[in-house]
Amino acid sequence: MTSDGVSEQDFTLDGVPGALWSPAGAAGGRPLVLLGHGGGQHKKGPGLVARARRLVTDLGFAAAAIDMPGFGDRPKSEQDQRFLAEIAELRAAGEPVGARIASYQVARAGQAIADWQATLDALAGLGYPGPTGYWGVSLGTLIGVPLAAAEPRISAAVFGLAPHGPLAEAAARITIPVEFLLQWDDELVPRADGLALFGAFASADKTLHANPGRHADVPAFELDSSVRFLARHLTG
Amino acid sequence: MTSDGVSEQDFTLDGVPGALWSPAGAAGGRPLVLLGHGGGQHKKGPGLVARARRLVTDLGFAAAAIDMPGFGDRPKSEQDQRFLAEIAELRAAGEPVGARIASYQVARAGQAIADWQATLDALAGLGYPGPTGYWGVSLGTLIGVPLAAAEPRISAAVFGLAPHGPLAEAAARITIPVEFLLQWDDELVPRADGLALFGAFASADKTLHANPGRHADVPAFELDSSVRFLARHLTG
After folding, report:
1. What CATH number is given to the structural domain containing A127?
2. Domain total for chain B?
3. Cα(A179)–Cα(B219) distance, rounded to whole angstroms?
4. Cβ B199–A207 below 8 Å, yes or no?
5. Which of B195, B206, B212 sits opposite A212 (nearest CB)?
6. With an 8 Å Cβ cutoff, are A209 and B208 in contact?
7. Residue numbers of the domain that contains B15
8. Using one digit for the tens of pLDDT, what is the confidence trace for A147-201?
């Protein structure tokens, strides 16, 4: 499907559904950004598609997204269902859920990492990647940090909205440039835990952008900033 | 003096030396940014002049700077000299000096605020201001925060590299958009004190940019970001 100069191509790799956005009529040989969706979202959530289109139209990059295990068109395991029931109970009791979500998603990130790596392998066959970036906050960071720690093809990343605790070991192995988003009044990630994750990256080139508001309130101007950050590190 | 399309005009107001940068051949009627210099610097320090020229060439704005009391071409009082001797002794003894510098400069900010307000009055007679911004970190923030709290003509500000303590009362009265710079390894401003100052601004629209490195190591890309921030808030 092509609209406004952006081609959107669906794919399925070993049962993992994904999508690739690129300039209409163009082939590989251009920077690629992997877009990690947030919790409750999927490979074509509206925020994610907006980011993909900006990368194509502003920078001439390509962008790819896949459904994470248990999200979008992928089935929820019995373990996922038990976990969701547990979260619903915690919420009903007015208990905080952020730390539990983070530890659960990081503990099972191995499958998501393998899926992303298979996606990268397949896209290499289509002329991608050249320089590869990653962009994902919240769930996209719970999976993205261990992915970037494991995957040398990723050379710059936008992360954020996630705590240090379960990511401590992976974060300490991150040396690529990072732009990190933090919400000052995040109801899921205590401020000190988000700041500690930023502090833990071993990257010499890392930058923290913090804004007032809750978990979902990242201001629109940060999209512009993330595009510029990826342009700066994946071109020239 | 005019170079590369930028006019630089010196002035003196009641013994306060200053400079105004504007597009060559242009008159007032454009946004104005007040540039507060850092400690040990003056109205034409190289970093400050670079910022002034960017505002003129990128945005068509005007920019103004004045020497703060005791800096540049303005005499040091006996009190200033005693203070500098005290700081030299603290440094020689390996003691931290940031908190002492901050409390001293904020305590005597009244004169600097009066000087900035007289400058604004005079520039109004030259067709300025329309929308007015402020840009100053370190000493530029120790003076700029109480200035912006007192001066309704200032409608957006870039601050940073300063602690909460002596600025607490003024910061709580700031409601304009603020972009705030923090150095993660600042040897003069403990991290928690810088974060607390960001937290204290009453502005709904405020954004924190933190980067690794010491007090003087603000990365060059933050200059680009500050220009964009001021463009966003001072133009239509």
Report:
1. 3.40.50.1820
2. 1
3. 13
4. no
5. B206
6. yes
7. 2-222
8. 999 999 999 999 999 999 999 999 999 999 999 999 999 999 999 999 999 999 9
Give how far B209 is from chain A: nearest CA, Å.
5
Cis-peptide, bond into residue B31, ω within 30° of zero: no
Give B224's contacts in chain A (Cβ within 8 Å): 228
Q: Residue B228 falls within a domain, yes or no? A: no
CB-hemisphere CA count at 13 Å for A68? 28
Which amino acid is located at B191 in the chain?
Answer: R
> What dihedral angle (degrees, nearest 10) is formed by the CA atoms of A78, A83, A87, A90?
110
- Say whether A199 and B208 touch across the interface (CB within 8 A): no
**For residues A39 and A162, is the Cβ–Cβ distance under 8 A?**
no
Closest chain B CA to residue A201: B212
> Per DSSP, what are the bridge partners of residue A84?
none
All residues of chain A having their beta carbon less than 8 Å from the beta carbon of residue B221 are 207, 232
Residue B59 located in a structural domain: yes
Give the dihedral of Cα atoms A221, A225, A226, A227; nearest 10 deg: 100
Mean pLDDT of chain A: 96
Q: Do A207 and B206 touch (CB under 8 A)?
A: no
Residue showing tokens 């988000």: A194
- What ipTM describes this predicted complex? 0.90
